[in-house]
Amino acid sequence: MKTVLVTGATSGIGEACARAFVAAGWRVVGTGRRVERLQGLVDELGADHFQPCVFDVRDDEARDAALAALPGEFAAIDCLVNNAGLALGAAPAQKADLADWKTMIDTNVVALASLTHNLLPGLIARKGAIVMLSSVAATYPYTGGNVYGGTKAFVRQFALGLRSDLSGTGVRVTSIEPGMVETEFTVVRNGGDQAASDTFYAGVNPLTGEDIAETVLWVASQPAHVNINTLELMPVNQSFAGFQVAREG
Ligand code: NDP
Ligand code: 8X3
Question: Residue 249 falls within a domain, yes or no?
Fold first, then answer.
């Protein structure tokens, strides 16, 4: 039985990944700060299949202690799903809160790179896999995307760079780049405003956490010689618009 560690398993895409991987016969280590939600997954999925691992991804000491305390059968990670992340605010850069920018960089970039660095030796030893949650925001700029898009561009490029560095190790690396997925993402982005999130997704028929989880599981289940480099997906009702032009005078 293989073991996957999914960061951000308390909600949305990560929570759906926990269910999908357990259903496919994997052991899952699920991380997050909300311990009661992780306990709910233990109750639902069973302690033999789901192991909670509670830490803030920005806290190196807490992360290392939580990983060191994993029981033996969950300690050998074959697949890392770097999913925990967030957007804060959608204001243009000139009106954005610097503290929000720093939180996004610390969470989406610094913590993701740190955890990857921590788990790389084991992943190499087991010829494992790393699946990163980037975003369409990595490639397509939109107003208010500024630092969030920048962090997700880092994730995409980091994944591609790892592919290069890990040549010959057998480790597979993938950047998954979704568009609109209805989770708690937009509630968090809007400071807990559920109504703003409901409005954002209304009538869109957005992607679901389960859609992305099935994609992550598919990527992780490819034969050992197949690497999915990048994978971009959107709801049918989300697409591209033209450039904007500011006119003088
Ligand atoms: P959710 O808000 O539903 O879930 C985010 C998860 O990240 C939670 O489990 C949360 O756990 C965890 N997390 C956030 N900050 C921290 C932290 N400091 N320490 C530990 N865990 C943390 O959002 P999604 O499921 O939608 O987002 C998952 C990933 O997918 C993100 O990286 C996001 O950027 C990406 N993505 C989302 C899209 C969307 O439209 N929803 C589209 C493209 C990419 P807890 O709060 O319990 O700690
Ligand atoms: C978030 C994707 O399209 O909501 O990563 O900005 S979108």
Answer: no
pLDDT (tens digit per residue) in 219-236: 999 999 999 999 999 999
Which residues are catalytically annotated?
148
Residue 117 domain flag: yes
CB of 62 closer than 6 A to ligand 1? no
Quick count: other Cβ atoms within 10 Å of Cβ 63? 20
Nearest CA to ligand 2 atom 5: 135
Q: What is the largest CA-CA distance in the chain?
A: 68
- Provide the residue range defining the domain that includes 97: 3-233
Closest ligand to residue 57's CA? 1
Question: In which band, very low, low, confident or very high, does the pLDDT at 211 lie, cut at 50, 70 and 90?
Answer: very high
Percent of the chain with pLDDT over 70: 100
- Is residue 178 classed as helix, strand or coil in its secondary structure? strand
Counting atoms of ligand 1 from 1, which one is nearest the CA of 186? 41
238 alpha carbon to ligand 1 midpoint, in Å?
20
Q: Whole-model pTM?
A: 0.98
Q: Which two tokens stand for residue 83?
A: 């999913």
Average model confidence (pLDDT) across the chain:
98
Domains: count for the chain: 1
Contact 178, 83 (CB under 8 A): no
Could you give the angle at the alpha carbon of 138 between the alpha carbons of 28 and 236, nearest 5°? 80
239 is a domain residue: no
Coil vs helix vs strand at 113 = helix
Q: Is the CB of 82 within 6 Å of ligand 1?
A: no
The confidence score (pLDDT) of residue 242 equals 87
Give the pLDDT mean for 234-240. Answer: 97
Tokens in use for 100? Answer: 């929000």
Instruction: Give domain status of residue 78, yes or no.
Output: yes
